[in-house]
Amino acid sequence: MSSAVLSRFGLIRMSGRDPHERHRVASPLELFFDLVFVIAVSQASQNLHHGIVEGHAAATTLSYAMIFFAIWWAWMNFTWFASAFDTDDWLYRVTTIVQMGGVLVLAAGVHDAMAEGEWATVTWGYVIMRLAMVGQWVRLAVSDPQLRSVAVRYAIGITVVQAIWVARIAFAADVQFWTFWPAMVFEVLVPVWAERARNTPWHPHHIAERYSLFVLILLGESLLASANAIIDAINEGEHIEGIVGLAAAGLVLAAGVWWMYFSHEYGDRLDSARTGFGFGYAHYLLFAAVGAISAGIEVELDLLSHASDHLNAATASLALAVPVAVFMFVVWLVLLRTRLSVTASTVFLIAAVGVLASALLPVVTVVGSAACAVIAVVALETHRSRAAQVG
Asked: Which of 185, 263, 265, 287, by CA, is between 20 and 30 Å from 214?
């Protein structure tokens, strides 16, 4: 289709953007897209909290991991596509809004999936998002002959895997559970296979910014959920002194997570497909951990207020300590390991182990986790100060 015909319909020829484009930042559409995902993350976090409190910690955590895969994978695929091919014309916007509709459908099905094992609504929401991406890849294949091979691979790969997801919901819940894992593997292998034809021209600093913004959104959701629970408890007059201490520790933990993640710039690290895949895929654990921290705070609050007969101190401690420790280990492995001195890395990892160790003494888990986060931040700032002096 010629540029004149496209222009007549208000469209722009879709092709690869300059991966070295100056001053490339997130677009308003991308920020709007992220906000819709907050709804799905909030639903997943709330149901994780309720499942743990009701005595189903293991099963609920596994369901949370499955739900978060759908959230993360749909978000990530759009993010990398937009970095490389965003045209911002009306068709691109409409297709993106269709994906947002899929997010809302997925969010509507989170409770049934995590509480009842009914995955049909979540699956349909996910498939809506993914098929909208197929439309984007088909548009690229038609528009740009040089990128047609990689676009066709993506379109075919995504379509085949969506057929698998849809076929799963015709079977019993246990079959759906066990078939989830191979379907997940097929999903994450599609980009690996597709990019062998040709690498897509994503923008490294734009990608780093998009991930940073999503971390901020997750932190905001975590603070909001925790604050609402704490405010409700205070209004009911329950254990005021303990709740104030929990609120303070929760704020320290959120600040620590922010400080650790934003201690360095990461765009310059994304200099190849290999580093891009490592960066993108590792954020599944990182995002899921940040999303689970608010659930951990709320579980600790329920323990403090004796809100559940099924909850014990050990479970509540693990609900908070595990996501904080996972975040710290992943952020060190993927983002900080090559930037820190041996001493700073050692102190940081000891602090991460300290968070896990605090779960062994439930009476100090909240304060211990917050203290370990502060120690890790001090190690980062000490290293950065010394590096600046040497430089």
From this structure: 185
How do residues 122-179 score in pLDDT, each as one tens digit? 999 999 999 999 999 999 999 999 999 999 999 999 999 999 999 999 998 889 889 9
- In angstroms, the first-to-last Cα distance of the chain is 54
Contacts of 69 (CB under 8 A, 6+ apart): 184, 284
Quickly tell me which residue has 């408890």 as its tokens. 233
Residue the block writes with tokens 């690290």: 269
**What are the C-alpha distances in Å from 179 to residues 166, 167, 168, 185, 270?**
11, 10, 7, 10, 33
Is 13 within 8 Å of 6 (Cβ atoms)? yes
Residue with tokens 């990892």: 349
- The residue whose two tokens read 């999503």 is 214
Residue 334: which of 235, 239, 208 has the closest Cα?
Answer: 208
Cβ–Cβ < 8 Å for 125, 109: yes
Query: pLDDT of 365-374, one tens digit each?
Result: 888 999 999 9
Tell me how far the alpha carbon of residue 305 is from its chain's centroid. 30
